Amino acid sequence: MRDKLNGYLSSNLLFLSIMKKTLLLLLAFSLLCAFRADNLPANFITLLNRTDMNFTLPAGYAAVAVVKNNQMVYHYAIKSADRNFEVRYAVRPLDSIMNVYNDWLQNKDGKVMTNPNNLYKLAFTIIMANLSRGSGRMPQIKAFDSLAVKRDFNADWGAVGLCIPTGNFSAGYKYLNVTALHKNNQGDAYIFYLTDNVQDLQTAMPPIYTALKFR
Questions:
Q1: Which superkingdom (predicted)?
Q2: Are 198 and 175 in contact (CB under 8 A)?
């Protein structure tokens, strides 16, 4: 009788152990599927995680190929299903350069380094100048209200840039609006809105404005 009881208990413990492992595997798989629900490219997901950002694919948009160009590296792009309106995303984590900077703070071995958290304004100015080079018109840049950019993007700083785009980055489009975001110690992000109809910047932009934001 005791042997039968022990056998019964052993069988049940084995069953419970198998069920526990199965449930854990199912949970892990479901989380993975949920995380990749938008079928985002692996490299873009990696950049989002390193920068601590979230991206939500807006309704009515689908991913399009990233265009190779010599003006601005970006990592993901989507396009409207009903108009010639494209949105491109560039994400730049600060983790690696912050590690280098923090190491330098400890040693200061004769080199001079600038805190990476102080470079976002200069970087955005250079990007806008590069995208409009040869247009004959200076880009317009305006910083967001600090409370608004924290509320909308959970960012420490943000700005909008407008220019007449030139070069192969903007081939097929007449107008370019750029949103720049920065969060200390996390990274920078740039959102490029490209269109051949200036009205799209007023009508198509607002509904997808916060598709990319810091967590």
A1: Bacteria
A2: yes
d(CA 214, CA 71): 25
How many CA within 13 A on the CB side of residue 110?
A: 0
Q: Are strands 85-93 and 61-63 parallel, antiparallel or unpaired?
A: unpaired
pLDDT band at 107 (very low <50, low <70, confident <90, very high): confident
Phi, psi of 191 (to 5 degrees): -120, 120
> How far apart are the two ends of the chain, measured CA to CA in Å?
60
Domain edges within the chain: 1-35, 38-214
Which residue, 189, 182, 164, 183, is CA-closest to 174?
164
Any bridge partners for residue 92, and if so which? 188
142/83 Cα distance (integer angstroms): 27
Q: Other C-beta atoms within 10 Å of 120: how many? A: 23
Provide the β-strand partners of residue 77: 88
- Per DSSP bridges, beta strands 212-214 and 53-55 are antiparallel
* pLDDT exceeds 70 at position 75: yes
- Using DSSP, state whether 192 is helix, strand or coil: strand
Distance CA 194, CA 201 (A): 9
pTM for this predicted structure: 0.80
Residue 28: pLDDT band (50, 70, 90) is: very low
